[in-house]
Amino acid sequence: MASPSSIPIMLAHQEYNYEETPTTSLISKPPSLSSPLKNIKSLTLFSLIFVSSLSIFLAFHLISSSFSLSSVKARSLSKLPHPVVIIFSFDGFRFGYNLKTSTPNIGRLIAEGTSADEGLIPVFPTLTFPNHYSIATGLFPPYHGIINNYFPDLENPTDWFSASNHDPKWWLGEPLWQTVARNGFNAAGYFWAGTEVKKGAWTCPPKFCPKYNSSTPFFKRVDDILEYFNLPDKEIPILSMVYFEDPDREGHIYGPDHPEITKAVANMDSVVGRLITGLEKRGIFEEVTIILLGDHGMAGICDEKYVFLNELAPWIQIEDNWINSAGTLLTIQPPSGVSSAEIVQKMNEGLSSGKVGNGDMLRVYLKEDLPERFHYAESNRIPAIVGLVEEGYTVESKRKKTYECGGSHGYDNLLFSMRTFFVAHGPRFAKGKKIHSFQNIEVYNLVTAILGLKGAPNNGSISFPNSVLLKK
Ligand SMILES: *[C@@H]1O[C@H](CO)[C@@H](O)[C@H](O)[C@H]1NC(C)=O
Ligand SMILES: *[C@@H]1O[C@H](CO)[C@@H](O)[C@H](O)[C@H]1NC(C)=O
Ligand SMILES: [Zn+2]
């Protein structure tokens, strides 16, 4: 058998020309890894079966999507004066979570809408703030500036960005709510990363841009969005972007496979149900576009899967204040006068020596040497040295305690465990249609196309909306 992640990755490879498959090629695996592909004969037979089933699969997709595209037109609006899009982000909603339990509401949107059959691909690093802001701007993190959840201004190292920092200097690019405001419409930004930052025409109006409060019940968030439809037509926000902390919270505590996750997923389904019911009551369910997505997935972590940097002491002493971030994403900014290239060389020497616990699960790079597909170099906010951590592993400077099993994210964005979901329902989306996986930087152009607005330059492809949306 191929590794479980190889099929979706090959598909992504086809569409995006990724030059690498995830970490397998970045961190060399010990040769002892047992594989059923022991000899060339079985390898050839296997590839033959794999390639032929893949081509049948692809052919089927081509046929089915050309049918649905040519025969069905977008449905027209009769109640709303303008297209309206509501995006719900469920933090850490790993792809496939909705199959853990009965999710009739998400299921209904999938059955009656368009969904990514192998999930939505996050950007690297697979962390909450970089991804939410990539969804909002269509930009890879170096271009939108939010390159981590927490990072220093390298020109002024005492000044750190954090989640609650609303100084516009950190937040580059043009997020969707600003695009909507620039075009003279109302938008609502409900707890989404970056909405409280005043930028251009976007002033974060209190009515449509509440101050972040994690205690606000999920149903209250939905009800507030539904209330907007009681406003005079011209004032209804044409875009609402709403953030929900679950099931990421449970994922970190319990890991991705735990009854608490199943419960949280059922709860998120009831949140979707409340939105559907509210829109149906107003007779606009078929007119409003609903997009459900997440920012990243979740991988299980455990005490025995840690790498401690102090074990590298025989090769190189990594000072704590050089480390900008650890955990699933290691970034190191050595002081001036210390050679980054030399640190990288010595660290990798130690890590591959066999003498550092789990050393072969971490590989460090000068940021400019990271494979291109990570898009994680073109910003002076990104520290000189970036460490890629294998799925499920965690890096710390030294052992501080016994670590509980739980979950984490931040790893390589092509890992299947880092994928999240994408479901869309509305007048421009075909019913029961499946589309291939795509990166979340495509969402910006998709939303501006539905809203009929001219967007800002970004990293999404111009042709993406046409390949997904029904023609008007
Ligand atoms: C946050 O929300 C909770 C629940 O609605 C509320 O009781 C609390 O007052 C809010 N906190 C702030 C600072 O508004
Ligand atoms: C991403 O978009 C920005 C803004 O348009 C552009 O400057 C940058 O070159 C793009 N990067 C890539 C890798 O496409
Ligand atoms: Zn998150």
UniProtKB/TrEMBL annotation:
Keywords: Membrane, Transmembrane, Transmembrane helix. GO terms for cellular component: vacuole. SUPFAM superfamilies: Alkaline phosphatase-like. GO terms for molecular function: hydrolase activity. InterPro entries: Alkaline_phosphatase_core_sf (IPR017850), Phosphodiest/P_Trfase (IPR002591). The keyword Cell membrane does not apply. The chain crosses the membrane at residues 43-63. Pfam families: Phosphodiest. This is Uncharacterized protein. It comes from Dendrobium nobile. The lineage of its organism: Eukaryota, Viridiplantae, Streptophyta, Embryophyta, Tracheophyta.
